[in-house]
Structures are given as C-alpha cells and as structure tokens.
C-alpha cells in the first residue's frame, strides 16, 4: 500500500542541484552514444521513461508550467487548475479548459513520441520490460503507438462525472470527451448549459489530476503501477520534465536509493547530480538517432514530425 502522495503541485527536495543555465549543449553524437549504450546495458530489465511537457513542445503544445513564455498555466495555475476552482466556478473552469484544449487535442506526435514508441517495441522484442509514464494530458504518446503507457495526470480526451461513486466518476469511471455535447455550452457558457453526466445528471469535469488532488484519486492514473515500476527499474529516462511535480521527484529519489542509471533529456537542463546524466539536447533529435543506432523500428518522422 503506497502512502498518500501529494498531487501535481508539490515540490520536494531531492539533493539535485540546479546550475545556472550557462552550459553549452552537449554534442548530439555523444548523447546518442551515452544513451544507446545504457539502454543496451539495461538488458531484459525494466526501462522506465517519464515524459513531461517538453516532449510535446515540438508538436506545438505550449508547456503547462515553467519558464516558457507561452506556458499555459504560468499565471493563476494554483487557482485555475484546482478542484476548488471547479466547484466555485464550474463555468469558468470549463471555459478555461475549452479555450486551451483545442491545441492539445489537435496536435500531432513529433519524432520524439515516435521514437519512444519504437524504443518500447525494441525493448519488448528483446525480452525486456518497458513502461512510459507521462505527465502530459495530450494523446500524442498513444497516437504515436505507445502501448505500455501510464497517463499519471489524466487525459484531455476524456471527462468524468464530478460525483464520486457514479458509474462515470471516480474512483474508476470516465467517458470520452467526443461523446458529450458541448455545443450549447460553447454557444452560451452558462451554468444551465454545463455538460452533464448521462448517468446521474451531475456536472461533468475534466479527467485530469488537479493541483489540489491526489494520484490515488482515480484508478486511471495508475499510481500503484508507477510505484511498482520504481521498485524494479533497470534504467530511468526523463524526457522534457521539469522536476517540479510529484512523480518526477519521487522517481528521482527512488533512482538515487537503488542507484539506478538515470538520464534526463532536456535542451534547457540545468540539473547536475552524480546520479543523473543530463543530456542537454532536443528529444526530437536525440531519440530518433538512438533508435536508429539500436535498430529500433520507428515510423520514419523527422524531427519536425513530418514524414519524408
Ligand atoms: Zn454521474
């Protein structure tokens, strides 16, 4: 039984130092060699990948937080991305999400998403184990073909009933966003037009982990599966994560405890630790090259997400 763990807004100390952002980008070839050799050395063990907003930037999705000038949640994040705000102002909460989800739901996978799906197939084909945990609520990993996937912060393409215990609510219910009629609300965003649960009539909500909620709040977040993976991972790879939310901090602490080889792919990385190899290159450049070197099959996107 896992102890309750704070939700997406929590920051914890891990002993990782943050350096001034003045380090030159590592040559891509060196990073390819480093990561490829580590992946090969992981053998039949579990390769655990944790992705954050950085992996979707090349698909045109602004980061939800951080220093990116286009970061969606840069302002008012702790107020708007909360259950408390939803209960205080459900019309405002729905309007806020609808104004932002169009970009999220129409984006296409880039070469990094494709490469991670290829890496999964490569690892499984050689008898190994693989799990991809994403903090992102977009659907780009599954669109790219990832199967062993945990969406630990929920998914933008689903909604759920706000009433716990309802068939379509927590702890395990949800329904596809495409099945609900939002036309009336889009025409006239008002309390009378809020989307309603087809089972009980309560208000529907986003199927995402809010900042004042817990990973254990819904079975779809699969927090137990993540915790189990952290106990037996042979290699830990962060891609585009900010290390400022709960699951990355927890994974980093587990990796330090078990001395797991750990890598972070982030072009703006300022992390330094004796237990973490920081690869300051773009994931959409590095990961396809790693796949190519390993002989992992990808669907042939270039770094801009375009098929040749
Ligand atoms: Zn309901």
What best-fitting shape do the alpha-carbon axes yield?
Answer: elongated
Number of helices: 10
In which order are the strands of the major sheet placed?
4-3-2-8-9-11
- pLDDT average, as an integer? 86
Low-confidence stretches: 1-15, 17-25, 301-308
The tally of strands reads 11
Largest sheet: 6 strands, parallel
**What is the number of independent domains?**
2
Percentage of residues in helical conformation = 25-40%
| Name of the CATH homologous superfamily of the largest domain | TPP-binding domain
| Bound heterogens, unique | zinc ion
Proportion in β-strands: 15-25%
Secondary structure topology:
Elements (H helix, E strand, L loop, with lengths): L16 E2 L9 H14 L4 E6 L25 H4 L2 H6 L1 H17 L4 H15 L3 E6 L5 H5 L4 E3 L2 E8 L13 E2 L6 H5 L16 E5 L14 H10 E7 L6 H13 L3 E4 L5 E2 L4 E3 L3 H12 L14
Parallel strand pairs: 2-3, 2-8, 3-4, 8-9, 9-11
Antiparallel strand pairs: 1-10, 5-6, 5-7
Helix pairs in contact: 1-10, 5-10
The chain binds zinc ion.
Search tags:
single chain, 308 residues, alpha/beta, Rossmann fold, SIR2/SIRT2 'Small Domain', three-stranded antiparallel β-sheet, 10 helices, 33% helix, disordered N terminus, disordered C terminus, binds zinc ion
């Amino acid at each position: 039984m896992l102890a309750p763990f704070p939700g997406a807004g929590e920051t914890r100390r891990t002993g990782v130092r943050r350096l001034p952002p003045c380090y030159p980008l590592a040559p891509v070839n060196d990073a390819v060699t480093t990561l490829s050799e580590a992946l090969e050395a992981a053998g039949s063990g579990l390769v655990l990948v944790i992705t954050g907003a950085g992996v979707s930037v090349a698909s045109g999705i602004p980061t939800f937080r951080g220093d990116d000038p286009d970061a969606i949640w840069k302002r008012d994040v702790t107020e708007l991305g909360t259950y408390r705000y939803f209960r205080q102002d459900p019309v405002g909460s729905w309007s806020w999400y609808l104004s932002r989800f169009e970009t999220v739901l129409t984006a296409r996978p880039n070469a990094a998403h494709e490469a991670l799906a290829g890496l999964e197939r490569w690892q499984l084909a050689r008898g190994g184990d693989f799990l991809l945990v994403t903090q992102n609520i977009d659907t780009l990993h599954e669109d790219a073909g990832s199967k062993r996937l945990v969406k630990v912060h929920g998914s933008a393409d689903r909604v759920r009933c706000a009433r716990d215990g309802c068939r379509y609510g927590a702890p395990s219910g949800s329904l596809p966003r495409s099945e609900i009629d939002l036309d009336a609300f889009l025409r006239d965003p008002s309390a009378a037009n809020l989307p309603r649960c087809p089972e009980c009539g309560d208000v529907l909500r986003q199927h995402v982990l809010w900042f004042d909620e817990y990973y254990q709040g819904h079975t779809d977040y699969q927090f137990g599966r993540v915790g189990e993976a952290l106990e037996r991972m042979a290699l830990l790879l962060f891609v585009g994560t900010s290390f400022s939310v709960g699951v990355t901090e927890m994974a980093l602490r587990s990796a330090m405890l078990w001395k797991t080889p750990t890598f972070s792919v982030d072009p703006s990385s300022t992390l330094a630790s004796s237990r973490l190899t920081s690869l300051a290159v773009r994931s959409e450049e590095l990961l396809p090259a790693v796949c190519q070197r390993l002989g992992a099959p990808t669907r042939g996107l270039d770094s801009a997400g375009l098929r040749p």
